[in-house]
């Protein structure tokens, strides 16, 4: 998640999702009926996704809430209140700290799962902000035990360890050999404890040649035996100038197909869009929109339409889900 992202509003994005989504797996489901589940069975390759939750064309839809952000804070409950059925995935970011011996930071948002409908998958970005060196065997074992405990509460986890590792905006970034070592360490520790946590390998969308350490993919690929789900952080920003222009036609499909052809299709591994949004940029000082002329509604509508289209499912048949970032950034 690049720190300089512009504003991405909550209410308008949710309205657009509602306007685009015409059918669900269970279109007659009643929002007033509780569909929370204390335990979930994991039959087939559903990745813990409930067919009762938000989706279109077989693509489940989730959100990364802002929680306590100082700009436009929101939470899963307020997002669900605007949706016809509950979100399928709740995204989250948690610091992995050496002083936190019991990994209590992971517990901070556990309460949301007992208070919102739908029992969403927890897409948990675990962030080694002290650097990859701090991820020892002991830390990895504690991560595995914590994941088992969460799963025992009836919550499925997609563990997005050290995400966007091909970028330079995080302390763990652009260290391919060390990343691979620590990824495999965490993978094996988690799998020794539970089968209901899926390891989500999720670089940033490519901004260099595929074999480059800065912005490429290949040097960070641990191999299909060490990955349960492949995913991307991928946004429409309006180019380097952050202009308010419409997403290019087929752009999302092209990027996701390229990624899927490399890491999903050859190994039949599910693919998800782990973070996405389409930004509408305004001046911090004046509040005036950036150059470009496209409306906020049209920018977001066209991006969401691409992501959830039948053309997308045909081009990327293993696409299982997208998670929309609901955080306003400066």
UniProtKB/TrEMBL annotation:
<comment type="similarity">
    <text>Belongs to the glycosyl hydrolase 26 family.</text>
</comment>
<keyword id="KW-0378">Hydrolase</keyword>
<dbReference type="InterPro" id="IPR000805">
    <property type="entry name" value="Glyco_hydro_26"/>
</dbReference>
<protein>
    <recommendedName>
        <fullName>GH26 domain-containing protein</fullName>
    </recommendedName>
</protein>
<feature type="domain" description="GH26">
    <location>
        <begin position="37"/>
        <end position="330"/>
    </location>
</feature>
<dbReference type="InterPro" id="IPR022790">
    <property type="entry name" value="GH26_dom"/>
</dbReference>
<dbReference type="GO" id="GO:0006080">
    <property type="term" value="P:substituted mannan metabolic process"/>
</dbReference>
<dbReference type="Pfam" id="PF02156">
    <property type="entry name" value="Glyco_hydro_26"/>
</dbReference>
<dbReference type="GO" id="GO:0016985">
    <property type="term" value="F:mannan endo-1,4-beta-mannosidase activity"/>
</dbReference>
<dbReference type="InterPro" id="IPR017853">
    <property type="entry name" value="GH"/>
</dbReference>
<keyword id="KW-0326">Glycosidase</keyword>
<feature type="active site" description="Nucleophile">
    <location>
        <position position="275"/>
    </location>
</feature>
<feature type="active site" description="Proton donor">
    <location>
        <position position="164"/>
    </location>
</feature>
């Amino acid at each position: 998640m690049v720190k300089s992202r512009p504003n991405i509003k909550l209410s308008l994005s949710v309205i657009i999702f509602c306007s685009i989504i015409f059918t669900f797996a269970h279109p007659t489901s009643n929002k007033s009926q509780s569909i929370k589940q204390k335990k979930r069975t994991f039959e087939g390759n559903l990745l813990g996704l409930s067919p009762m939750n938000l989706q279109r064309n077989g693509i489940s839809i989730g959100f990364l809430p802002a929680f306590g952000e100082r700009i436009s804070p929101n939470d899963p409950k307020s997002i669900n209140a605007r949706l016809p059925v509950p979100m399928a995935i709740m995204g989250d970011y948690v610091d992995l700290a050496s002083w936190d011996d019991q990994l209590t930071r992971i517990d901070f948002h556990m309460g949301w799962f007992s208070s919102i409908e739908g029992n969403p998958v927890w897409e948990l970005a675990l962030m080694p902000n002290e650097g990859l060196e701090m991820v020892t065997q002991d830390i990895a074992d504690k991560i595995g035990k914590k994941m088992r405990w969460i799963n025992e509460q009836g919550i499925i986890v997609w563990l997005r360890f050290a995400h966007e590792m091909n970028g330079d905006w995080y302390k763990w970034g652009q260290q391919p050999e060390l990343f691979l070592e620590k990824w495999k360490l965490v993978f094996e520790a988690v799998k020794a404890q539970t089968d209901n946590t899926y390891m989500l390998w999720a670089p940033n969308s490519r901004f260099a040649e595929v074999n480059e350490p800065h912005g490429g993919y290949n040097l960070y690929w641990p191999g299909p035996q060490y990955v349960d789900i492949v995913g991307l952080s991928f946004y429409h920003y309006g180019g380097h100038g952050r202009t308010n222009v419409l997403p290019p036609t087929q752009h999302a499909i092209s990027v996701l197909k390229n990624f899927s052809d490399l890491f999903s299709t050859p190994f039949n591994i599910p693919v998800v869009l782990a973070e996405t949004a389409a930004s509408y940029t305004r001046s911090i000082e004046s509040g005036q929109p950036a150059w470009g002329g496209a409306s906020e509604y049209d920018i977001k509508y066209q991006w969401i339409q691409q992501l959830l289209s039948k053309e997308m499912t045909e081009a990327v048949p293993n696409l299982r889900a997208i998670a929309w970032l609901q955080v306003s950034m400066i």
